[in-house]
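Q: Structure for this?
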Amino acid sequence: MAMGAPLIGTSVLRKEDYRFLTGAGQYTDDISLPGQTYAVFVRSPHAHANIKSIKKDQALKKPGVLAVFTGEDLAAAKVGGLPCGWLITDVNGQPMKEPPHPCLAQGKARYVGDQVAVVIAESLHAARDGADAVQVDYEPLPSVVDTASAGKKGAPQLHENAPDNTCYVWAIGDKAAVDKAFAGAAHVTRLDLVNNRLIPNAIEPRAATGAYSRAEEAYTLYVSNQNPHVERLLMTAFVLGLPEHKVRVVAPDVGGGFGSKIYLYPEDVVVTWAAKQINRPVKWTADRSESFVSDAHGRDHVTIAELAMDKDGKFLAMRVHTTANIGAYLSTFAAAVPTILYATLLAGQYTTPLIYCEVTAVFSNTAPVDAYRGAGRPEATYVVERLVETAAREMKLDPAEIRRRNFIRSFPYQTPVALMYDTGDYDATLDGALKLADVAGYGKRKEDSIKRGKLRGLGYAAYIEACGIAPSAVAGSLGARAGLFEAGEVRVHPTGSVTVFTGSHSHGQGHETTFAQVVADRLGMAIENVDIVHGDTSKVLFGMGTYGSRSLAVGGTAIVMALDKIIAKGKKIAAHLLEASESDIEYDRGVFKVAGTDKQKMFGEVAFAAYVPHNYPHDKLEPGLNENAFYDPSNFTFPAGTYVCEVEVDPDTGKVTVDRFTAVDDFGKIVNPMIVEGQVHGGLTQGIGQALIEGCVYDKDSGQLLTGSFMDYSIPRADDVPSYKVDTRETPCTHNPLGVKGCGEAGAIGAPAALMNAITDALGVKDLPMPATPQTVWKALRAKKAA
Amino acid sequence: MGVKVSMTVNGKQVSSEVEERTLLVTLIREQLRLTGTHVGCDTAQCGACTIAMNGKAVKSCSMLAMQAEGADIMTIEGVAKPDGTLHPMQAAFKENHGLQCGFCTPGMVMNAIDFAKRHPNASEQEVREALDGNLCRCTGYHNIVKSIMAGSKAMAAGK
Ligand code: FES
Ligand code: FES
């Protein structure tokens, strides 16, 4: 009979947990291939240097060393450079500057950690010994690492074809109209903001093992990656010039990504290519120190932001100038992050009618910068919500009230920066957050703090994000060089159990559970009978992968579409078996029924008939029950919410304690509340990390990375963060069948602004740079006292 | 080059030939193929490599294989009952969603079991402090703390 209660909306415990809890997970480095060898990369110790010569002979003499390859070898083998997946057109209608991004340096190293050569050996120890013995003759050059200086005249130049280290100057909005609105404004709030550079630090370091089969004349790459099909497409078509069907990419269990594992990295290409050269598998796993210098970093903006208001605090216009540091080379999606994913979010939750934003992207002698959890949207939220809170203080308005005066309340809503919000209820999340945070009791808590000699501050952030980048055609017109759809396949087995293949990739998000809930509900079967398969190009038909909080909204919808096809075909089969007309067949949780009768067939019976088609409508229907679907969304989704943060500051030490953090989010429909809450907790912690303790620092003179280990770069530990209060409100997305919006990045997007609003409130200062370390806070308090 | 080391791992006697510089974690992962013990850093900060040695949680990346000569080692693979039933601490992580990508998880669980044995009634703050040597980038610790508090109770109740 029909199965029990619906699973969508319930906190089903995760199917994947057993293997992770018992040590049975299979991460890339856990996979050992017969005959595998080990690769170690020789990396530049200089931020900027000409490479005069590379001598391999000493290294090749080391016991166990099998091969040493350099950029020259790759060039000779016609291995290309890494492509950028997004083309930005600048203010003059010219394409951005795209300097070559070689997989091993060609003549010049451009940041500390730039890969210069690879040594392959029988063991990791031997490869390390070999790498130590490679002699590289460097001629150091002056370097520039600083965002604000890189684009200045006279700064050291990284690339011949990028004068003033400028990749592009890009703009959106009507500058003249915005300037006019500012001229007539009753009040203008201005902030000079720095969005600090971050190092993602998934706890599993990047890893890649390449293998080549002479029998099949085909390659396999195991790689810790968020989108194996995209990895394969970029690597085969743009770098190695191989046909895609001869390359299999497997991204098995992946220990966190946060954006940093979206990209095609040089090491992935090198181990794949080298596997054929030496005819043995080549394995590389990054040390944490290597991750620090070579993973794509995040954020790194310097911004001047202004908000113009009338006398009642109604927003008239916003003007933003940002310089974005994109590092030494363009990483896979680098160009889109400070433009398409940033400036388009500057309307926030507000009706600001006029917005102008200009972005200058600069190269510097630092690791490439690309999308990191939130990607552009945390930077935008930081600008908007720091401006709004500061404006409220300057206008002597309650920060909740100024937001209410400007909220968008009618949907769909067209912003002045290209996006069309489909739905939302910003009053609901704001009111919910104020209540859950007990803002009413704040005054009392502040008094208590003061009695104890402490400062207390309260800060809000009302963020919006655009998730599930789409549609492909629009993204294409904005410069995307890839599609942004997702694919899914539902394979019903003869005995009625189901394997679902998805192009989304799970690296902590719990898709094996959430997607199975959707499938089990839709088909009306036990969740145990549903398996979700992802992460292998030889199993999954196609996929664009997981980033931008897109998996359920885009990947989940593709699965739902395939399920609908399964049910439609099932109805045809059932109609035949029941000798009824197809239009009379209804499907209800596992049962095909002839409407208004008690004639029925179970899902399993229909599946069996499809594979053992003795009694089957062969004239009208193919046997089998296997369907796939590709879904290209008609719009982004727009999760939004309000965060309330309360901090206590010790004025003697400058230490900030996050006393309370409350998040009320609208993610549309929620499939698994437990998993959603977990995503919010993780995002909030990364956001708090950015605001309080994380900051990537390169030495301005030498270009050395000063924060190159967990001892110098602090990611939040358990006692740096509080337990959170989280809740949700729900306005279902109007353009996907599940009504879902995405939840993976929200916390990291909204938290930094809420926290810095709280800290500046506690200190009574206008602004403070992130991270608000005890030293920074203490200095600000001293400066205030002195003034 | 080689030295021979012998120890008990998850109740089984093992001996292996290693280089003098071989780390205990390398022996566990590469030679014994117990890949549930992970490596997340090279500065003894992350705790992904945590195992139990003679009943105490230690970071297996911070010692040489030779230093474990004769020791009684337990890795995450040895924690559940032989019939596959999860240890109460493992069960608590599952029930409280104390893991996402799972990479930090084995180290978290190994540390948590040792901590819970010594502090059956720890406060939230004590649990947070005890996690100082275990980094997680996914969960924000909220549910790990919940898991450890629940797992400690279950262990104390002898479940
Ligand atoms: S690998 Fe042992 S502490 Fe990080
Ligand atoms: S669950 Fe991913 S690092 Fe902890």
